[in-house]
Design brief:
This protein is mainly beta and about 325 residues long. About 10% of the residues lie in helices and about 40% in strands.
Length: about 325
């Protein structure tokens, strides 16, 4: 009986953490990990393929990063129209359409607002202007004087709530930005007037969860990921990411001048502990030991419901199986 109990406990404590570090960073960096306050060790961190993710959620499903104070798109300065850049909660639906995710600040944290960021210190403002910082003028019509373009009318690119961090920045998917434009590059959710933690609640229980995470200002940080079934804590995973937070200096220059994304935000994940109905994420600055502001990108969801066949398809399958059985029995009777 004791052996069975020990085995059951070991199975319950089985957990995967993923630290996916892509090339491109400039820092001397390392990542270590540990479970339930155990000493952080580099062993035990596995790859993202250790999870069975079958769904995801982009933060564009929960709001647009450009909507907030000071934007040029005719919305009130307080961001009260549409999806404000700062909000006490955000809700979005997964790509598969089965899971609704609600993001709030967790109890006991600092600050009450979250923000929709974009990994977009540069936005594409058309072929003439090229890459500009958000909020710059975007010329919409030109005249030419000795081959030099002279702007006749213009709009402004949105005043995006942006972050120049280690998340994915792709210059090949540039969109022309102006009035009515929405998001640029990787969509993020992060803390704005405090340090979190951030709580994510799911309408359907999951078997696994994962996400890229990074501190907004701290260069080195420790991130925690707690998984819950209701109010019951299933387990906590930690990663200590040295050199993977703060600003990505490779984006100090615009892409046309050689700037590129660091694309190496650490990935933290948890699973195989039981049904996960919510997770809580938090970040601590390694240098000060204090809670730190942070951002996360696209959510990876495991165990979300898989679509079932339509009733008509099931009926055809049953009819086909019945026909095969009848044919088999009829054939057998003829050979007796």
């Amino acid at each position: 009986m004791r052996a069975r109990t020990d085995k059951s406990m070991k199975m319950r404590l089985l957990i995967f953490v993923i630290v996916s570090v892509l090339p491109g960073g400039l820092w001397a960096s390392s990542v270590s990990c540990g479970f339930n306050l155990a000493s952080l060790q580099s062993s035990g961190c596995v790859s993202q393929s250790s999870f069975s993710f079958n769904d995801s959620m982009l933060w564009t499903a929960a709001g647009n990063a450009y909507e907030g104070p000071g934007q040029p798109n005719g919305e009130p300065p307080d961001g009260s129209v549409l999806n404000p850049a700062n909000s006490a909660s955000y809700a979005g639906v997964s790509t598969g359409g089965d899971v609704t995710v609600i993001a709030t600040t967790a109890a006991g944290g600092t600050g009450t607002l979250l923000g929709r960021y974009d990994e977009a210190p540069w936005v594409w403002a058309g072929a003439t202007l090229g890459w500009v910082q958000p909020g710059a003028s975007n010329c919409t019509s030109y005249t030419y004087n000795n081959g030099v373009p002279v702007c006749m009318s213009s709009t402004s690119t949105p005043y995006l709530l942006t972050y120049q961090g280690p998340f994915y920045f792709d210059t090949s998917t540039a969109t022309v930005y102006g009035n009515g434009s929405v998001d640029a590059n990787t969509a993020l959710l992060g803390t704005t007037n405090g340090t979190g933690p951030i709580q994510l609640s799911f309408s359907q229980s999951l078997t696994a969860f994962g996400v890229d995470i990074s501190a907004l200002n701290a260069t080195s940080f420790t991130a925690s990921l707690q998984a819950y079934d209701g109010n019951s804590l299933l387990g906590t995973y930690y990663i200590d990411a040295v050199g993977y937070g703060g600003s990505c200096t490779m984006l100090d220059n615009m892409p046309s001048a050689g700037g590129s994304g660091c694309n190496n935000a650490p990935f933290i994940g948890i699973g195989n502990l039981g049904p996960i109905t919510k997770v809580i994420l938090g970040v601590t600055d390694d240098s000060s030991g204090n809670a730190a502001g942070f951002a996360i990108d696209t959510l990876q969801l495991g165990g979300a419901p898989i679509a079932t066949p339509e009733p008509g398809v099931l009926l055809l399958a049953v009819c086909g199986l019945g026909a095969l059985i009848w044919r088999s029995r009829n054939s057998s009777s003829e050979h007796r």
